[in-house]
Amino acid sequence: MKKILIIEDNLSNAEMISAVFNEEGFSTRSLTGSKGLEEMLRDFQPDLILMDILLESTDGRALCNLIKANEKTGQIKIILMTAALLHQIPDVPCQHDGIVTKPFDIFELLKKVNNMLQVDDISASLKPL
Q1: Which of 26, 50, 58, 63 could form a disulfide with 21 if both were Cys (CB 3.0 to 4.6 A apart)?
Q2: For residue range 26-62, what is the model confidence (pLDDT) as tens digits?
Q3: Where are the domains of the chain?
């Protein structure tokens, strides 16, 4: 079973994303910021991280770079999420594997995740929310 860590400071967004991916057979965990991230990466060992760029306590791109720079976690795929238009936020070089803007189409996000994790496309079985 593939594992996804969701780092999103909006709890309702995190719960919705988690519910959709759990329904599709993924194991998910959520964090609202960087607190507890090191332990979560060590204990949960996610295959992919869905991370908001603008977190209350930090910039998700900075966290992304820290994760990618660590030899133990550098292979984890990271998709950044943002409600801001990309030209509205300061440019921070980042080694992410993908980016989606909110509001996003959950079916498209599922396809992107399935492609990154080389999972059969199961999103066709999803019922509209």
Answers
A1: 26
A2: 999 999 989 999 999 999 999 999 999 988 888 899 9
A3: 3-125
Beta partners for 6?
Answer: 30, 50
Which of 26-30, 33-37, 71-75, 86-90 is predicted with the least confidence, judged by mean pLDDT? 86-90
The CB-side HSE value for 41 (13 A sphere, CA atoms) comes to 23
Q: Pairing state of beta strands 27-31 and 3-7? A: parallel
Looking at the chain, which runs of residues are DSSP E strands? 3-7, 27-31, 48-52, 77-82, 98-101
Cβ neighbours around 11 below 10 Å, total: 10
Please tell me the CATH superfamily of domain 3-125, with its number. Answer: Response regulator (3.40.50.2300)
Q: What is the pTM of this model?
A: 0.86
